[in-house]
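so im writing up the methods section and need the DNA-binding response regulator record in one place, dumping it here so i stop losing it
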Amino acid sequence: MSTLAPPPAEKDATASGAAASSLADRRVLVVEDDPTVAEVAASYLSAAGFIVDQAADGFAALKQVALTPPDLIVLDRMLPGIDGVEVCRRIRSHSAVPIILLTALGGQDDRILGLEAGADDYLAKPFSPRELVLRVQSILRRSVAEFDAEKPLAFGEFTLDPSAHVATHRGETLMLTAREFDLLAFFLKRPNQVFSRDDLLRAVWGWTHGDVSTVTVHVRRLREKIEIDAAHPVILSTVWGVGYRLEGEVRAHASA
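--- predicted struct ---
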């Protein structure tokens, strides 16, 4: 049985006001086989102004993504048919849509497995529906608003356009997830500075506490997309015992 609280009254769920209304046209797909959890999550998200679709298993989720591409997916780890990790891998083969993984398995290895499959974030069950809404708002708000006024950046053969949310390497667009894009943008704006995993967890994820392995996995995933040899990184280096640093110089893009 679910321990989630009942859906909030409309006035309570929309307390975030103007911030939430700016995301009102965003579509969220909730993939959850527990009807109660799915109903509560969908109710809270709908009350916060999102358009919500639902799927009860992995195959239905993949079909729904192809039929009506969402702006974000809330994906249960344990699903009938194919599990959430495999669903995540299949979606990542062709899409960078943000994915929040819901997991009832509390082990670090399980969380890492989901992150390595391409999840941007995760919530452990039982979770607060209000926290879920805040996580969804945080990820989508960064993708639609935070970078609007910022100028494009370039690093060697890499360019990043924050307002368009596009990063390229040698003119080819990189398929970065929401968190990977945020992480790359953070480093590009702060070259030659060392940041610990705790620093990055606070600055990029907005978490005051959490599992720092989340950062480790995302750095590894980002390296696989921006380095020539991810096993021997020369762009995003490790400062042993301290953290990570973007090496070299960053200049304003010529078109800025």
